[in-house]
Amino acid sequence: MSVRHSLLALLSEGPKYGFQLRQEFEASTGDVWPLNVGQVYTTLDRLERDGLAESDDIDADERQRNFRITQNGVEELARWLRMPPDLTQPPRDELVIKILVASRLPDVDVYDVIQVHRRYLVQLMQQWTRLKEDEVRFDLAFALAVDAELFRLDAVVRWLDAADGRLRRSRQESTTDITEEVTRIRRRTGAHR
Prior knowledge:
Blueprint: H1 3-11, E1 16-17, H2 18-28, H3 37-49, E2 53-55, E3 66-69, H4 71-82, H5 94-104, H6 110-135, H7 140-189
C-alpha cells in the first residue's frame, strides 16, 4: 500500500493538516489500515522535499502546517493511479515458505500443516464475512476493503488445496516409481516374492 500516493490523493481534494489526513486516510480505507500519525508527518516531509506537496509555513510546528498538492504531485498521482503494480516476482509469502519447508522435513506431516492453516484461513474468512454483513450498509470503503481481503484469503485457501493435491500426487508417483523399479529388479534377477 502506498501511503505516499494515498496522501497525495487526499491532498488533491484540497489543503489539509497532518492529523486530518490521518483521519481521512483511515476513513477512506474503511478503518482497516490504521496509520501512525508520525508516519503521516514523515511522509508529508518527504512529499514536500520531493516537490509533490507544499505547506504554508515550513518553520511552523508540523502539526499546524497546512499541506496542499503541487502540480508535480498531481502528475505523480495520475501516473501512480494508471501504473499497474509490479507483480512479476512472487512475494516472499510466509505460508508458502512454511509449506515448502514442511514438505522436505521427514518428521513433519505436511498435510497436517496444510490443514491447520486452511482451518485458520476459513475462520478468518468467516470473521471478515460477519464484519461485512454488519457494516456493509454503512461504509462502502470498508465493504470494498473486506471484499479484497476475502478474495485474498480465498486465493490462499485455493493455493493450499492445490498444494495438498500436488504433494499427494507427487507422493503417489514416487511410490509408484519405487514399486515399478523393485518389480523390474526382481524380473531381471529372477527373484520371487
